[in-house]
Design brief:
The chain is an alpha+beta fold. It is built from 15 helices and nine strands.
Length: about 425
């Protein structure tokens, strides 16, 4: 980690968990600092520090450089407009899906579970400053228990996804990725919508299939939470929008982050801001013992503690009440140093190429493709120290999947 990384972490702590530890880094290259903060999705956190006239040297430098400050704040206006566009697209989609009666009886009309993204923005200091990518929804039918818990049905999710897909296709929208093992997707008013029937990858690799089954079961155990009617968050025209309960959301955070780490997809600093702000806000609503038991069943207990400690290090928000190892509990308000394995996870995150798309480096030559399976797993071997899962099982599964793809693929498929 360099001075720019350390300075950004210090600014994040000063905004999210004041008072923070004294600053120890002062980068002079403002353009690189701002670009890194924007790339990592936390430019809005830096903007709060600028607005509050934080005493950190890099914030003082921004405030003392009028042109750079104006450029930075103008870039946030674009972020706010993008946030507004996605809110409007989601509201429009839900409104258009409300009259589904030509396709299904009113009694079977699905409600919608909103995953990640906009539903988490309400916990940020300024919701509009949380960058939101795709909009992830899951159509569900629900029933309410005698105790008042809203419980989703899990045996008809694929049918409901097909129902929603048919509804948008009837309006001239093209639905893609129908063979995906987690969701379909389509564009709505220029925004990509991912229509889920699963919360995690259903492949056996790294135990993700088992994790998805346990995560889905947690939704029935803990129920769903109606989306808060927060004027700064999202209008809810159909009154049928839900989010995961705090206990399920806690488990989902861990699974989602682990999938990104193993898939070498981007894990951004904003993901850790999400974790810290959400779990801190719901620290009294989470079934800690029950949730941690589910995470242990997945084999992700150790990596869970690592992610929580990294979140504490980055944001200054202590989440040790969820940790199971005594090495991750701290008496001091400021986060302690990272362990070697936590630093390695951080290095893996910070060096990820944000312009690279999954599959970009898949060779077309099939011999090279099989060789690459061994190389990729060799590079990930250190990650198996984070989870209780078999390296050799995953290596065999990867080879099997590639062989099946090679045998069954159409002749004209590259």
């Amino acid at each position: 980690m360099n001075d720019i990384h350390i300075a950004l972490f210090e600014v994040m702590r000063s905004v999210l968990a004041p008072p923070s530890s004294p600053s120890s880094s002062s980068p002079t290259d403002l353009s690189t600092f701002i670009a890194f903060a924007t790339q990592q999705g936390v430019a809005g956190i830096v903007a709060q520090a600028v607005k509050n006239c934080d005493e950190h040297p890099v914030i003082q430098l921004i405030n003392n450089t009028p042109q750079k400050k104006m450029e930075f704040l103008l870039s946030l206006t674009e972020q706010e407009n993008d946030y507004k566009k996605k809110k409007e697209a989601l509201s429009s989609l839900l409104t258009s899906l409300t009259p589904l009666t030509p396709l299904t009886p009113p009694s079977e009309f699905p409600n919608f579970l909103l995953l990640k993204g906009i539903s988490l923005s309400q916990y940020w200091p300024v919701p509009q400053h949380r960058p939101c990518g795709d909009i992830d929804i899951m159509p569900v039918t629900i029933h309410t228990t005698e105790e008042g818990t809203v419980v989703p049905e899990l045996n008809n999710l694929r049918e409901l996804v097909s129902l929603v897909d048919a509804a948008v296709e009837s309006q001239g929208v093209t639905v893609k990725a129908k063979d995906n093992n987690k969701h379909t997707k389509f564009m709505w008013q220029g925004v990509q919508i991912e229509n889920h029937f699963a919360l995690a990858e259903q492949a056996r690799l790294f135990g993700f299939g088992k994790a998805n089954d346990l995560l889905m079961a947690s939704m029935q155990k803990y129920g769903l939470t109606p989306l808060p009617s927060n004027p700064s968050n999202l209008s809810n025209p159909s009154s049928s929008l839900y989010t995961l309960s705090p206990s399920s959301q806690y488990i989902y955070f861990i699974v989602h982050m682990l999938i990104h780490l193993f898939s070498r997809e981007t894990i951004l600093l904003r993901h850790f801001v999400d974790i810290s702000l959400y779990l801190d806000a719901h620290r009294h609503d989470i079934d800690v013992e029950g949730s941690n038991h589910i995470i242990r069943e997945m084999g992700y207990s150790r990596v869970k503690d690592i992610f929580l400690h990294i979140a504490h290090y980055l944001t200054g928000i202590d989440l040790s009440f969820l940790c199971e190892t005594t090495s991750h509990t701290h008496d001091a308000p400021a986060p302690c140093e990272l362990t070697p394995i936590e630093r390695r996870v951080m290095r893996e995150m910070l060096r990820q190429d944000l312009t690279k798309k999954p599959g970009d480096d898949n060779p077309q030559n099939h011999i090279l493709r099989f060789f690459k399976i061994f190389v990729d797993h060799g590079k990930k071997y250190w990650m198996y120290r984070l989870i209780e899962h078999s390296f050799y099982t995953d290596l065999w599964d990867s080879i099997s999947v590639s062989v099946r793809h090679y045998i069954h693929k159409p002749k004209d498929t590259p």
